[in-house]
Write a structure and sequence with these properties.
By secondary structure, this protein is mostly helical. Helix content is about 80%, strand content about 0%. The chain has a single domain (about 25-424), classed as MFS general substrate transporter like domains (Growth Hormone, Chain: A, Up-down Bundle). It has 18 helices and no strands. The longest helix has about 30 residues, at about 25-55. The protein is globular and about 55 Å long.
Protein backbone atom coordinates (compact mmCIF):
# COMPACT_ATOMS: atom_id res chain seq x y z
CA UNK A 1 0.00 0.00 0.00
CA UNK A 2 2.91 2.30 0.63
CA UNK A 3 3.59 2.55 -3.08
CA UNK A 4 0.19 4.12 -3.60
CA UNK A 5 0.48 6.56 -0.71
CA UNK A 6 3.99 7.70 -1.56
CA UNK A 7 4.43 7.29 -5.32
CA UNK A 8 7.51 9.46 -5.30
CA UNK A 9 9.52 6.96 -3.29
CA UNK A 10 11.47 4.57 -5.53
CA UNK A 11 12.22 2.24 -2.64
CA UNK A 12 8.58 1.92 -1.56
CA UNK A 13 7.38 1.61 -5.14
CA UNK A 14 9.93 -1.10 -5.82
CA UNK A 15 8.75 -2.97 -2.73
CA UNK A 16 5.17 -2.74 -4.02
CA UNK A 17 6.18 -4.16 -7.38
CA UNK A 18 8.03 -7.01 -5.70
CA UNK A 19 5.11 -7.70 -3.36
CA UNK A 20 2.51 -7.90 -6.11
CA UNK A 21 4.64 -10.52 -7.88
CA UNK A 22 5.74 -12.59 -4.90
CA UNK A 23 2.57 -12.58 -2.78
CA UNK A 24 -0.10 -12.77 -5.45
CA UNK A 25 0.01 -16.24 -6.98
CA UNK A 26 -2.80 -15.67 -9.49
CA UNK A 27 -1.38 -12.38 -10.79
CA UNK A 28 2.04 -14.03 -11.10
CA UNK A 29 0.58 -16.89 -13.14
CA UNK A 30 -1.17 -14.48 -15.52
CA UNK A 31 1.99 -12.39 -15.83
CA UNK A 32 4.16 -15.42 -16.67
CA UNK A 33 1.58 -16.68 -19.18
CA UNK A 34 1.56 -13.24 -20.82
CA UNK A 35 5.35 -13.29 -21.05
CA UNK A 36 5.07 -16.49 -23.10
CA UNK A 37 2.21 -15.27 -25.30
CA UNK A 38 3.76 -11.88 -26.04
CA UNK A 39 7.17 -13.47 -26.51
CA UNK A 40 5.68 -15.84 -29.08
CA UNK A 41 4.86 -12.82 -31.26
CA UNK A 42 8.45 -11.77 -31.78
CA UNK A 43 10.10 -15.16 -31.41
CA UNK A 44 7.97 -16.01 -34.46
CA UNK A 45 8.00 -12.68 -36.29
CA UNK A 46 11.73 -11.93 -36.42
CA UNK A 47 12.63 -15.35 -37.92
CA UNK A 48 9.60 -15.15 -40.21
CA UNK A 49 10.64 -11.74 -41.59
CA UNK A 50 14.07 -13.15 -42.34
CA UNK A 51 12.57 -16.30 -43.86
CA UNK A 52 10.25 -14.29 -46.11
CA UNK A 53 13.14 -12.13 -47.30
CA UNK A 54 15.07 -15.29 -48.12
CA UNK A 55 12.20 -17.16 -49.82
CA UNK A 56 10.66 -14.25 -51.78
CA UNK A 57 13.54 -11.79 -52.22
CA UNK A 58 11.18 -8.88 -51.45
CA UNK A 59 10.58 -6.66 -48.44
CA UNK A 60 6.90 -6.39 -49.39
CA UNK A 61 5.95 -9.73 -47.83
CA UNK A 62 7.45 -8.74 -44.49
CA UNK A 63 5.38 -5.55 -44.47
CA UNK A 64 2.28 -7.54 -45.41
CA UNK A 65 2.95 -10.03 -42.61
CA UNK A 66 3.20 -7.21 -40.05
CA UNK A 67 0.01 -5.65 -41.43
CA UNK A 68 -1.79 -9.01 -41.39
CA UNK A 69 -0.92 -9.36 -37.72
CA UNK A 70 -2.22 -5.96 -36.63
CA UNK A 71 -5.09 -5.85 -39.14
CA UNK A 72 -6.54 -9.16 -37.98
CA UNK A 73 -6.38 -8.06 -34.37
CA UNK A 74 -8.05 -4.74 -35.19
CA UNK A 75 -10.93 -6.38 -37.06
CA UNK A 76 -11.64 -8.93 -34.33
CA UNK A 77 -11.14 -6.78 -31.23
CA UNK A 78 -14.68 -5.31 -30.95
CA UNK A 79 -16.21 -8.79 -30.92
CA UNK A 80 -13.37 -10.17 -28.79
CA UNK A 81 -13.97 -7.46 -26.19
CA UNK A 82 -17.64 -8.44 -26.01
CA UNK A 83 -16.64 -12.08 -25.52
CA UNK A 84 -14.31 -10.99 -22.69
CA UNK A 85 -17.29 -9.36 -20.92
CA UNK A 86 -19.70 -12.22 -21.66
CA UNK A 87 -17.80 -15.44 -20.90
CA UNK A 88 -15.35 -16.66 -18.30
CA UNK A 89 -12.09 -14.85 -19.04
CA UNK A 90 -9.91 -17.67 -17.77
CA UNK A 91 -11.42 -20.07 -20.30
CA UNK A 92 -10.99 -17.52 -23.07
CA UNK A 93 -7.27 -17.22 -22.24
CA UNK A 94 -6.72 -20.98 -22.33
CA UNK A 95 -8.71 -21.43 -25.55
CA UNK A 96 -6.72 -18.62 -27.18
CA UNK A 97 -3.43 -20.30 -26.22
CA UNK A 98 -4.48 -23.60 -27.78
CA UNK A 99 -5.81 -21.88 -30.93
CA UNK A 100 -2.49 -20.05 -31.31
CA UNK A 101 -0.73 -23.42 -31.03
CA UNK A 102 -2.66 -24.71 -34.06
CA UNK A 103 -1.81 -21.53 -36.02
CA UNK A 104 1.91 -21.91 -35.32
CA UNK A 105 1.84 -25.36 -36.95
CA UNK A 106 0.99 -23.61 -40.24
CA UNK A 107 4.32 -21.75 -40.17
CA UNK A 108 6.15 -25.03 -40.81
CA UNK A 109 4.58 -24.97 -44.31
CA UNK A 110 6.28 -21.69 -45.30
CA UNK A 111 8.30 -23.06 -48.23
CA UNK A 112 8.62 -22.59 -51.98
CA UNK A 113 6.65 -20.20 -54.23
CA UNK A 114 3.68 -20.09 -51.84
CA UNK A 115 5.80 -19.05 -48.86
CA UNK A 116 4.36 -15.52 -48.76
CA UNK A 117 0.63 -16.37 -48.88
CA UNK A 118 1.02 -19.29 -46.44
CA UNK A 119 2.87 -17.02 -44.01
CA UNK A 120 0.09 -14.41 -44.20
CA UNK A 121 -2.63 -16.99 -43.47
CA UNK A 122 -0.68 -18.42 -40.52
CA UNK A 123 0.11 -14.99 -39.09
CA UNK A 124 -3.54 -13.96 -39.44
CA UNK A 125 -4.66 -17.12 -37.59
CA UNK A 126 -2.10 -16.54 -34.83
CA UNK A 127 -3.21 -12.92 -34.52
CA UNK A 128 -6.84 -13.98 -34.37
CA UNK A 129 -6.06 -16.02 -31.27
CA UNK A 130 -4.20 -13.07 -29.76
CA UNK A 131 -7.15 -10.77 -30.50
CA UNK A 132 -9.27 -12.77 -28.06
CA UNK A 133 -6.45 -13.22 -25.54
CA UNK A 134 -5.49 -9.57 -25.05
CA UNK A 135 -8.81 -7.96 -23.99
CA UNK A 136 -9.57 -10.92 -21.72
CA UNK A 137 -6.16 -10.64 -20.04
CA UNK A 138 -6.37 -6.85 -19.71
CA UNK A 139 -9.90 -7.00 -18.28
CA UNK A 140 -9.05 -9.85 -15.89
CA UNK A 141 -5.86 -8.36 -14.46
CA UNK A 142 -7.41 -5.65 -12.19
CA UNK A 143 -9.59 -8.36 -10.59
CA UNK A 144 -6.54 -10.43 -9.61
CA UNK A 145 -5.02 -7.74 -7.36
CA UNK A 146 -6.22 -5.57 -4.49
CA UNK A 147 -7.05 -1.98 -5.43
CA UNK A 148 -4.07 -0.71 -3.43
CA UNK A 149 -1.79 -2.85 -5.61
CA UNK A 150 -3.26 -1.70 -8.93
CA UNK A 151 -0.57 0.89 -9.73
CA UNK A 152 2.46 -1.43 -9.32
CA UNK A 153 0.49 -4.27 -10.94
CA UNK A 154 -0.20 -2.10 -14.00
CA UNK A 155 3.49 -1.20 -14.25
CA UNK A 156 4.47 -4.88 -14.06
CA UNK A 157 1.65 -5.88 -16.42
CA UNK A 158 2.66 -3.16 -18.87
CA UNK A 159 6.27 -4.31 -18.78
CA UNK A 160 5.36 -7.85 -19.91
CA UNK A 161 5.39 -7.02 -23.60
CA UNK A 162 8.67 -5.11 -23.41
CA UNK A 163 10.35 -7.76 -21.26
CA UNK A 164 9.73 -10.59 -23.67
CA UNK A 165 10.33 -8.50 -26.77
CA UNK A 166 13.88 -7.95 -25.53
CA UNK A 167 14.42 -11.68 -25.05
CA UNK A 168 12.28 -13.06 -27.87
CA UNK A 169 13.52 -10.70 -30.58
CA UNK A 170 17.21 -11.15 -29.78
CA UNK A 171 16.89 -14.89 -29.20
CA UNK A 172 14.71 -15.27 -32.28
CA UNK A 173 17.46 -13.78 -34.42
CA UNK A 174 20.16 -15.88 -32.73
CA UNK A 175 18.25 -19.19 -32.84
CA UNK A 176 17.20 -18.53 -36.43
CA UNK A 177 20.81 -17.95 -37.48
CA UNK A 178 22.14 -20.83 -35.35
CA UNK A 179 19.51 -23.46 -36.16
CA UNK A 180 16.63 -22.32 -38.39
CA UNK A 181 13.41 -20.27 -38.28
CA UNK A 182 11.49 -23.54 -37.97
CA UNK A 183 13.26 -24.29 -34.68
CA UNK A 184 11.86 -21.00 -33.36
CA UNK A 185 8.36 -22.01 -34.43
CA UNK A 186 8.72 -25.31 -32.54
CA UNK A 187 9.83 -23.59 -29.35
CA UNK A 188 6.85 -21.23 -29.54
CA UNK A 189 4.48 -24.21 -29.82
CA UNK A 190 5.91 -25.70 -26.61
CA UNK A 191 5.65 -22.33 -24.85
CA UNK A 192 1.97 -21.92 -25.71
CA UNK A 193 1.19 -25.23 -24.03
CA UNK A 194 3.00 -23.94 -20.93
CA UNK A 195 0.97 -20.70 -20.99
CA UNK A 196 -2.29 -22.66 -21.05
CA UNK A 197 -1.15 -24.73 -18.06
CA UNK A 198 -0.16 -21.62 -16.09
CA UNK A 199 -3.53 -19.96 -16.72
CA UNK A 200 -5.43 -23.09 -15.72
CA UNK A 201 -3.96 -22.70 -12.20
CA UNK A 202 -5.53 -19.25 -11.58
CA UNK A 203 -8.11 -19.50 -8.76
CA UNK A 204 -9.22 -15.93 -8.14
CA UNK A 205 -12.28 -14.89 -10.23
CA UNK A 206 -11.29 -13.04 -13.41
CA UNK A 207 -14.49 -10.95 -13.37
CA UNK A 208 -16.83 -9.66 -10.73
CA UNK A 209 -19.77 -11.96 -9.88
CA UNK A 210 -23.00 -11.36 -11.77
CA UNK A 211 -21.39 -8.94 -14.23
CA UNK A 212 -21.21 -11.20 -17.31
CA UNK A 213 -22.59 -9.48 -20.41
CA UNK A 214 -25.67 -11.31 -21.78
CA UNK A 215 -26.91 -9.04 -24.54
CA UNK A 216 -26.34 -9.70 -28.28
CA UNK A 217 -22.83 -8.83 -29.41
CA UNK A 218 -23.69 -5.78 -31.51
CA UNK A 219 -25.94 -4.34 -28.79
CA UNK A 220 -23.14 -4.84 -26.26
CA UNK A 221 -20.61 -3.12 -28.54
CA UNK A 222 -23.06 -0.23 -29.08
CA UNK A 223 -23.44 0.19 -25.31
CA UNK A 224 -19.67 0.53 -24.88
CA UNK A 225 -19.53 3.06 -27.73
CA UNK A 226 -22.29 5.13 -26.13
CA UNK A 227 -20.40 5.08 -22.84
CA UNK A 228 -17.27 6.38 -24.58
CA UNK A 229 -19.15 9.13 -26.44
CA UNK A 230 -20.46 10.47 -23.13
CA UNK A 231 -16.92 10.88 -21.81
CA UNK A 232 -14.56 13.14 -23.83
CA UNK A 233 -11.72 12.27 -21.45
CA UNK A 234 -12.12 8.56 -22.19
CA UNK A 235 -12.33 9.28 -25.92
CA UNK A 236 -9.00 11.07 -25.60
CA UNK A 237 -7.50 8.09 -23.78
CA UNK A 238 -8.63 5.56 -26.41
CA UNK A 239 -7.14 7.64 -29.23
CA UNK A 240 -3.79 8.41 -27.65
CA UNK A 241 -2.08 5.16 -28.70
CA UNK A 242 -2.76 5.98 -32.34
CA UNK A 243 0.06 8.53 -32.30
CA UNK A 244 2.61 5.73 -32.08
CA UNK A 245 0.38 3.60 -34.33
CA UNK A 246 0.43 5.98 -37.30
CA UNK A 247 4.23 5.91 -37.22
CA UNK A 248 4.59 2.21 -36.51
CA UNK A 249 4.86 1.26 -40.17
CA UNK A 250 8.56 2.00 -39.91
CA UNK A 251 8.96 -1.48 -38.37
CA UNK A 252 8.62 -2.79 -41.93
CA UNK A 253 11.87 -0.97 -42.72
CA UNK A 254 13.87 -2.79 -40.02
CA UNK A 255 14.97 -5.76 -42.22
CA UNK A 256 16.04 -3.36 -45.00
CA UNK A 257 17.83 -1.10 -42.52
CA UNK A 258 19.64 -4.09 -41.03
CA UNK A 259 20.84 -5.11 -44.49
CA UNK A 260 21.93 -1.54 -45.26
CA UNK A 261 24.15 -1.53 -42.16
CA UNK A 262 25.36 -5.08 -42.89
CA UNK A 263 24.35 -6.44 -39.48
CA UNK A 264 22.35 -9.49 -40.67
CA UNK A 265 19.90 -11.59 -38.63
CA UNK A 266 21.57 -10.86 -35.30
CA UNK A 267 21.42 -7.13 -35.97
CA UNK A 268 17.75 -7.31 -36.89
CA UNK A 269 17.05 -9.28 -33.71
CA UNK A 270 19.00 -6.68 -31.75
CA UNK A 271 16.93 -3.85 -33.24
CA UNK A 272 13.69 -5.51 -32.15
CA UNK A 273 15.23 -6.38 -28.77
CA UNK A 274 16.24 -2.76 -28.15
CA UNK A 275 12.71 -1.80 -29.12
CA UNK A 276 11.42 -4.16 -26.43
CA UNK A 277 13.94 -2.89 -23.88
CA UNK A 278 12.67 0.65 -24.42
CA UNK A 279 9.08 -0.54 -23.98
CA UNK A 280 10.13 -2.25 -20.76
CA UNK A 281 11.84 0.83 -19.30
CA UNK A 282 9.24 3.37 -20.46
CA UNK A 283 6.42 2.44 -18.03
CA UNK A 284 8.75 2.92 -15.05
CA UNK A 285 10.11 6.24 -16.37
CA UNK A 286 6.60 7.65 -16.80
CA UNK A 287 5.10 6.04 -13.69
CA UNK A 288 5.00 9.32 -11.73
CA UNK A 289 2.18 10.51 -13.98
CA UNK A 290 0.04 7.56 -12.87
CA UNK A 291 -0.40 9.03 -9.38
CA UNK A 292 -0.78 12.68 -10.49
CA UNK A 293 -3.90 13.21 -12.65
CA UNK A 294 -2.83 16.71 -13.69
CA UNK A 295 0.38 15.27 -15.18
CA UNK A 296 -1.31 12.56 -17.23
CA UNK A 297 -2.29 14.38 -20.44
CA UNK A 298 0.90 16.47 -20.69
CA UNK A 299 2.96 13.31 -20.09
CA UNK A 300 1.03 11.51 -22.84
CA UNK A 301 1.73 14.37 -25.26
CA UNK A 302 5.43 14.36 -24.32
CA UNK A 303 5.67 10.60 -24.84
CA UNK A 304 4.12 10.82 -28.31
CA UNK A 305 6.37 13.69 -29.36
CA UNK A 306 9.48 11.94 -28.04
CA UNK A 307 8.69 8.88 -30.17
CA UNK A 308 8.52 11.02 -33.31
CA UNK A 309 11.66 13.03 -32.55
CA UNK A 310 13.69 9.91 -31.74
CA UNK A 311 12.81 8.27 -35.05
CA UNK A 312 13.64 11.47 -36.91
CA UNK A 313 17.09 10.99 -35.38
CA UNK A 314 17.16 7.37 -36.55
CA UNK A 315 16.39 8.49 -40.11
CA UNK A 316 19.55 10.64 -40.10
CA UNK A 317 21.90 8.25 -38.22
CA UNK A 318 24.90 6.86 -40.09
CA UNK A 319 26.26 4.70 -37.24
CA UNK A 320 24.38 1.58 -36.17
CA UNK A 321 24.71 2.18 -32.37
CA UNK A 322 22.98 5.55 -32.88
CA UNK A 323 20.15 3.75 -34.65
CA UNK A 324 19.81 1.47 -31.62
CA UNK A 325 19.86 4.45 -29.25
CA UNK A 326 17.08 6.17 -31.21
CA UNK A 327 14.98 3.01 -31.24
CA UNK A 328 15.41 2.66 -27.46
CA UNK A 329 14.32 6.25 -26.71
CA UNK A 330 11.37 6.07 -29.11
CA UNK A 331 9.96 2.90 -27.62
CA UNK A 332 10.61 3.94 -24.02
CA UNK A 333 8.29 6.85 -24.82
CA UNK A 334 5.86 4.56 -26.62
CA UNK A 335 5.81 2.08 -23.72
CA UNK A 336 5.11 4.87 -21.25
CA UNK A 337 2.32 6.13 -23.49
CA UNK A 338 0.71 2.68 -23.61
CA UNK A 339 0.82 2.01 -19.86
CA UNK A 340 -0.33 5.49 -18.81
CA UNK A 341 -3.44 5.28 -20.97
CA UNK A 342 -4.14 1.67 -19.91
CA UNK A 343 -3.84 2.60 -16.24
CA UNK A 344 -6.27 5.50 -16.58
CA UNK A 345 -8.77 3.31 -18.43
CA UNK A 346 -8.48 0.52 -15.83
CA UNK A 347 -9.31 3.00 -13.09
CA UNK A 348 -12.13 4.83 -14.85
CA UNK A 349 -14.02 2.11 -16.76
CA UNK A 350 -16.36 -0.24 -14.82
CA UNK A 351 -15.61 -3.95 -14.87
CA UNK A 352 -18.69 -4.88 -16.92
CA UNK A 353 -17.50 -2.58 -19.74
CA UNK A 354 -13.75 -3.01 -19.35
CA UNK A 355 -13.32 -5.75 -21.96
CA UNK A 356 -15.22 -3.84 -24.64
CA UNK A 357 -13.70 -0.43 -23.92
CA UNK A 358 -10.24 -1.98 -23.80
CA UNK A 359 -10.92 -3.72 -27.11
CA UNK A 360 -12.04 -0.43 -28.71
CA UNK A 361 -8.89 1.21 -27.39
CA UNK A 362 -6.65 -1.43 -28.95
CA UNK A 363 -8.69 -1.64 -32.15
CA UNK A 364 -8.17 2.07 -32.87
CA UNK A 365 -4.44 1.72 -32.25
CA UNK A 366 -4.16 -1.45 -34.35
CA UNK A 367 -6.04 0.12 -37.27
CA UNK A 368 -3.55 2.99 -37.22
CA UNK A 369 -0.65 0.53 -37.11
CA UNK A 370 -2.11 -1.56 -39.96
CA UNK A 371 -2.62 1.40 -42.29
CA UNK A 372 0.90 2.62 -41.52
CA UNK A 373 2.50 -0.78 -42.10
CA UNK A 374 0.61 -1.40 -45.35
CA UNK A 375 1.63 2.02 -46.64
CA UNK A 376 5.29 1.53 -45.77
CA UNK A 377 5.25 -2.09 -46.98
CA UNK A 378 4.18 -1.04 -50.46
CA UNK A 379 6.96 1.56 -50.71
CA UNK A 380 9.78 -0.22 -48.87
CA UNK A 381 11.25 -1.77 -52.05
CA UNK A 382 11.16 1.45 -54.08
CA UNK A 383 11.69 4.41 -51.71
CA UNK A 384 14.75 5.29 -49.63
CA UNK A 385 14.27 3.65 -46.23
CA UNK A 386 15.46 6.78 -44.39
CA UNK A 387 12.78 8.87 -46.07
CA UNK A 388 10.12 6.36 -45.04
CA UNK A 389 11.29 6.46 -41.42
CA UNK A 390 11.31 10.28 -41.45
CA UNK A 391 7.77 10.38 -42.87
CA UNK A 392 6.48 8.01 -40.17
CA UNK A 393 8.18 10.02 -37.43
CA UNK A 394 6.76 13.30 -38.73
CA UNK A 395 3.26 11.80 -38.88
CA UNK A 396 3.51 10.86 -35.19
CA UNK A 397 4.71 14.35 -34.27
CA UNK A 398 1.82 16.02 -36.12
CA UNK A 399 -0.68 13.66 -34.45
CA UNK A 400 0.79 14.44 -31.02
CA UNK A 401 0.47 18.19 -31.53
CA UNK A 402 -3.11 17.88 -32.82
CA UNK A 403 -4.15 15.57 -29.97
CA UNK A 404 -2.78 17.92 -27.33
CA UNK A 405 -4.51 20.95 -28.84
CA UNK A 406 -7.84 19.12 -28.84
CA UNK A 407 -7.51 17.70 -25.30
CA UNK A 408 -5.87 20.55 -23.40
CA UNK A 409 -9.17 21.71 -21.82
CA UNK A 410 -10.52 18.30 -20.83
CA UNK A 411 -11.27 17.55 -17.12
CA UNK A 412 -8.72 15.71 -15.01
CA UNK A 413 -11.21 13.03 -14.01
CA UNK A 414 -13.96 11.16 -15.84
CA UNK A 415 -17.40 12.54 -14.97
CA UNK A 416 -19.68 9.53 -15.54
CA UNK A 417 -21.88 8.89 -12.54
CA UNK A 418 -23.81 5.64 -12.12
CA UNK A 419 -21.64 3.34 -14.21
CA UNK A 420 -18.48 4.36 -12.47
CA UNK A 421 -20.02 4.21 -9.06
CA UNK A 422 -20.45 0.51 -9.67
CA UNK A 423 -16.78 0.21 -10.59
CA UNK A 424 -15.68 1.82 -7.35
Amino acid sequence: MGGCRHPGSSQVYGASVLRVLTRNRDFRRLFLAELIVFGADWFVMVPLLLLLNEKTGQGLWGGLALAAETGTVALLLPYAGTIADRFDRKRILITSNLSALIAVVGLFLVHGPWAGPIALVSVAALSGAKAFYTPAANAAMPNLVDRSDLSPAMAVHGSAWGTVTVLASSMGGVVSAWLSPYACFGLVAVGLVGAALLTSGIHRPTQLPGRAEQRPAFAAIAEANRFLRREPRLLALVTVKSAVGVGNGLLATFPVLAMAFGVGPRGLGLMFAIRGLGSLVGPFVFRAALARPHWLFPALAISMSTYGLAYLGVSMATWFPLVLAGIFVAHAAGGGNWVMSNYALAQEVPDELRGRVGASDQMIAMLAVTVSQLTVGFFVDSVDVRLLIACCATTTLLYAVGWRLVTRRLPRHVTAGPALAVAD
